[in-house]
């Protein structure tokens, strides 16, 4: 028998968002991980807000909303607020009731800046890594490092000479002036972006197009493929090697470590500094040429662990792929190195939670 297409609106609902979300929904494990980390951050949140005045958006709800934005590739705060308005799954995850009003997108952005000032991304990332460590999932000896180019929220037209005043805008161009920089040598020491001065013109491989951006670096432990360290640096030719030394100097402990990487890290200076930190560089060997050789030799490559590190190091590309395609940081929507590093670290935490959802059993998640 054919059912009737009745579209009668009901005044009351007897099911809560908690009841509507299936028990085996993937977000339930992510929510448990998030709430555990936020419970550790509660004392930090208490110091960020005044005891008087009107209540603001709860920081726990802000963090959950940012996680949803990355997990579901929501490209703007406007669309995120739209989803929160009618999406029951989003309301349940953030912690909003059925009748709770949704925030204005500008209010959400302003309150998010408070989290930036409190360095919440780094603390949240550390809490997620600590949860993985407590479950015995992290290696404390074998790591991999790599860097990736993050495009800045700035156009090539904004990359102008520092000693040249900005030309008056032609009213006929309607905010998009015609700029011809063909034949002009543009360098980071003489030019800067007027939109994002922290961005640098850089190309990661020869023959590629130079883009304004930053370099995001991660250290991955080789047991479960989880990210344990992050940093964002200006895009320069030596940034990856400098970041390797910086990040490995943060690793605790006195025992010997190994660090896998591609051949870009195979320089005498980088290898020497890593060894001084007690780190054995398991980096890919640079193909010898008449002008350059490899900084590592058979004393390192003859060990079976070197081959294992070379095989495991390729897994770090999975984190970059997820953060760029799902978390949408291929071209960041934030300006300034501080904000870019904040959102990059938060994306790394979201990536770890996606992996931990499968690595942790339902009883331990």
Explain what the structure shows.
With 365 residues, the protein is of the alpha/beta class. The chain is 41% helix and 13% strand. The chain has 13 helices and eight strands. Strands 1, 4, 5, 6, 7 and 8 form a six-stranded mixed beta sheet that branches. A two-stranded antiparallel sheet has the order 2-3. Strand 7 (257-261), helix 9 and strand 8 (279-283) form a beta-alpha-beta unit. The longest helix is centred in the first third of the chain and has 23 residues, at 26-48. The radius of gyration is 24 Å and the shape is globular. It starts with 16 loop residues before the first helix and ends in a 6-residue tail after the last helix. The mean pLDDT is 87.
What's the topology here?
Blueprint: H1 17-20, H2 26-48, H3 59-71, H4 77-86, H5 88-94, H6 105-117, H7 120-134, E1 142-151, E2 159-161, E3 191-193, E4 200-202, E5 211-221, E6 227-234, H8 239-249, E7 257-261, H9 268-276, E8 279-283, H10 298-301, H11 304-312, H12 316-325, H13 337-359
Parallel strand pairs: 1-7, 7-8
Antiparallel strand pairs: 1-5, 2-3, 4-5, 5-6
Helix pairs in contact: 2-3, 2-7, 2-13, 4-6, 7-13
């Amino acid at each position: 028998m054919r059912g009737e297409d009745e579209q009668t609106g009901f005044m009351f609902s007897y099911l809560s968002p908690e009841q509507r979300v299936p028990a085996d929904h993937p977000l339930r494990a992510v929510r448990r991980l998030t709430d555990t980390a936020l419970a550790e951050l509660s004392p930090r949140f208490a110091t960020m807000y005044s005891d008087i005045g009107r209540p603001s958006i709860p920081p726990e709800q802000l963090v959950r909303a940012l996680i949803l934005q990355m997990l579901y590739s929501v490209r703007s705060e406007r669309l995120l607020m739209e989803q929160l308005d009618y999406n029951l799954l989003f309301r349940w995850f953030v912690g909003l009731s059925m009748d709770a009003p949704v925030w204005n997108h500008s209010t959400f952005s302003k309150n998010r800046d408070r989290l930036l000032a409190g360095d919440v991304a780094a603390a949240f990332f550390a809490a997620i890594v600590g949860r993985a460590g407590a479950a015995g999932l992290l290696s404390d000896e074998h790591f991999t490092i790599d860097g990736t180019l993050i495009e800045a929220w700035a156009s090539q037209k904004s990359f102008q000479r520092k000693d040249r005043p900005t030309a008056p805008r032609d009213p006929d161009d309607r905010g998009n002036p015609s700029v011809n920089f063909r034949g002009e040598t543009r360098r980071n020491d003489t030019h800067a972006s007027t939109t994002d001065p922290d961005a640098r013109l850089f190309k990661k491989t020869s023959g590629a197009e130079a883009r304004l951006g930053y370099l995001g670096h991660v250290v991955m432990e080789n047991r479960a493929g989880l990210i344990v360290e992050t940093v964002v640096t200006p895009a320069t030719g030596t940034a990856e090697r400098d970041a390797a030394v910086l990040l490995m100097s943060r690793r605790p402990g006195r025992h010997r470590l190994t660090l896998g990487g591609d051949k870009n890290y195979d320089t005498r200076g980088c290898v020497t500094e890593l060894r001084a930190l007690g780190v054995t560089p398991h980096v890919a060997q640079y193909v010898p040429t008449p002008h350059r050789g490899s900084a590592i030799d058979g004393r390192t490559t003859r060990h079976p662990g070197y081959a294992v590190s070379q095989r495991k190091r390729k897994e770090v590309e999975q984190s970059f792929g997820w953060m760029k395609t799902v978390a949408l940081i291929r071209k960041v929507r934030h300006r300034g190195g501080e904000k870019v590093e904040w959102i990059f670290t938060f994306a790394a935490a979201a990536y770890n939670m996606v992996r931990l959802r499968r690595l942790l059993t339902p009883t331990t998640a």
